[in-house]
Amino acid sequence: MSSSTIRFSQLGLDSRITDKVAELGFQSPTDIQAQAIPIVLEGEDLLAGAQTGTGKTAAFGLPLIHSLLNSDPADNMPVNGVRALIVTPTRELAQQVFDNLLSYAEGLELKIVVAYGGVSLNPQKEKLRSGADILVATPGRLLDHAYNKTMDLRFSETVVFDEADRMLDMGFLPDIQRILKRLPEKRQTLLFSATFDKKVKTLAYRLLTTPKEIQIHAQNSAAESVSQILYPVDKKRKRELLSYLIGSRNWQQVLVFTKTKEGTDRLVKELKLDGIKAASINGDKSQGARQKALDDFKAGQVRALIATDVAARGLDISELECVVNFDMPFKAEDYIHRIGRTGRAGNSGLAVSLMSRDEEPMLAAIETLIDKRVPQEWLAGFEPGTEVITEDQPRSRRPSRSAEKRKMKAKLKIHQNRGKHRPR
Ligand code: ADP
Ligand code: MG
């Protein structure tokens, strides 16, 4: 997974941590780990970009644990003080980062707490009342605890924004500003993501003090370990094509992204009719149902997990073989994050996009962002414009011969003139 020959033992980490890393089977640090760990250990601010699945969690998690183990909290820190804070955009990612940190710090004297919405406040309050070495949280719930004075952020030494560009976009920024106000001015701030754009970077630099910047791969690049393919297809036939692909390619574990919450549930029902075990994850579900769907999927009990972009960021599903964009993403950077759920930790992966005509502008935006063409192919039997007319369709809804002819002609013209819908 790593191209460097550096070893974990050379990075200045406590041997208790390097022992643990070896136990976890990490043979050598990834590039982002090799570069970020010494900087984080120095206490410097950092903006770090590296592709999906390259081990960014350990890149901030390991040195954070080291620093907390090897220093004492401020003398005047209140009992409910939090020494380090990690903020993530989704609950599932908070849980995952928390689980990762627990595995890195197992057996060490550190208190790590997780707090996110959708589950009851009281157990979290109980835990936080006596403070934490590390708190992993989503912004909304973090503010609930701050307003409730459950915990105190005034003495936090380090704050990490995972999926930093997402945390600083319009949706989250007001909450993030409220959180920043509660943190001390003098602190270490770390920003990690696979994508950064200019606007976010400008904003990011305002939060950072004489920061270091690391960019491992070309900015906003999709992981090379993921092979990408796009099938142009009529909108109405996407569902049929998805079932066909799952069946004919014998995919056992596939993560499918749709654009709406309702879309996830509809697709689950339809796949079930085709005999494919599916579950959905979206923002309307109870947190219990969300986590269960993800856990069942990870455990291989569900073959297709249908998700909105709530699952696009950060989730690490061991050896997930395939991601499908059932709908093209609204935001080009979400393409990078969605497909980055596969091809992680040195494994290869496949990303398939189903694109209807109206989604062509989204593809153009993606290709501009990643500065690459997404390979396209027409799939035999699913070529766009070849919708099958079945006998049970009412006559009135069947196109007349001349209408059909007109349609074909128009289509031919479009292809000749624009060639845009053609596989390249
Ligand atoms: P990112 O945040 O960059 O998308 P993660 O931190 O989620 O990536 O890590 C992706 C996967 O790689 C995880 O399963 C993690 O356990 C594994 N991993 C991390 N660091 C290493 C390493 N040095 N060697 C092998 N596997 C690693
Ligand atoms: Mg991550």
From TrEMBL:
<feature type="domain" description="Helicase C-terminal">
    <location>
        <begin position="240"/>
        <end position="390"/>
    </location>
</feature>
<feature type="domain" description="Helicase ATP-binding">
    <location>
        <begin position="37"/>
        <end position="214"/>
    </location>
</feature>
<keyword id="KW-0347">Helicase</keyword>
<feature type="short sequence motif" description="Q motif">
    <location>
        <begin position="6"/>
        <end position="34"/>
    </location>
</feature>
<dbReference type="GO" id="GO:0005524">
    <property type="term" value="F:ATP binding"/>
</dbReference>
<dbReference type="GO" id="GO:0016787">
    <property type="term" value="F:hydrolase activity"/>
</dbReference>
<dbReference type="Pfam" id="PF00270">
    <property type="entry name" value="DEAD"/>
</dbReference>
<protein>
    <submittedName>
        <fullName>DEAD/DEAH box helicase</fullName>
    </submittedName>
</protein>
<dbReference type="InterPro" id="IPR027417">
    <property type="entry name" value="P-loop_NTPase"/>
</dbReference>
<comment type="similarity">
    <text>Belongs to the DEAD box helicase family.</text>
</comment>
<dbReference type="GO" id="GO:0003676">
    <property type="term" value="F:nucleic acid binding"/>
</dbReference>
<feature type="region of interest" description="Disordered">
    <location>
        <begin position="385"/>
        <end position="424"/>
    </location>
</feature>
<dbReference type="InterPro" id="IPR044742">
    <property type="entry name" value="DEAD/DEAH_RhlB"/>
</dbReference>
<dbReference type="GO" id="GO:0003724">
    <property type="term" value="F:RNA helicase activity"/>
</dbReference>
<feature type="compositionally biased region" description="Basic residues">
    <location>
        <begin position="396"/>
        <end position="424"/>
    </location>
</feature>
<dbReference type="InterPro" id="IPR014014">
    <property type="entry name" value="RNA_helicase_DEAD_Q_motif"/>
</dbReference>
<dbReference type="InterPro" id="IPR011545">
    <property type="entry name" value="DEAD/DEAH_box_helicase_dom"/>
</dbReference>
<dbReference type="InterPro" id="IPR001650">
    <property type="entry name" value="Helicase_C-like"/>
</dbReference>
<keyword id="KW-0378">Hydrolase</keyword>
<dbReference type="InterPro" id="IPR014001">
    <property type="entry name" value="Helicase_ATP-bd"/>
</dbReference>
<keyword id="KW-0547">Nucleotide-binding</keyword>
<dbReference type="GO" id="GO:0005829">
    <property type="term" value="C:cytosol"/>
</dbReference>
<dbReference type="InterPro" id="IPR050079">
    <property type="entry name" value="DEAD_box_RNA_helicase"/>
</dbReference>
<keyword id="KW-0067">ATP-binding</keyword>
<dbReference type="Pfam" id="PF00271">
    <property type="entry name" value="Helicase_C"/>
</dbReference>
<dbReference type="InterPro" id="IPR000629">
    <property type="entry name" value="RNA-helicase_DEAD-box_CS"/>
</dbReference>
<feature type="domain" description="DEAD-box RNA helicase Q">
    <location>
        <begin position="6"/>
        <end position="34"/>
    </location>
</feature>
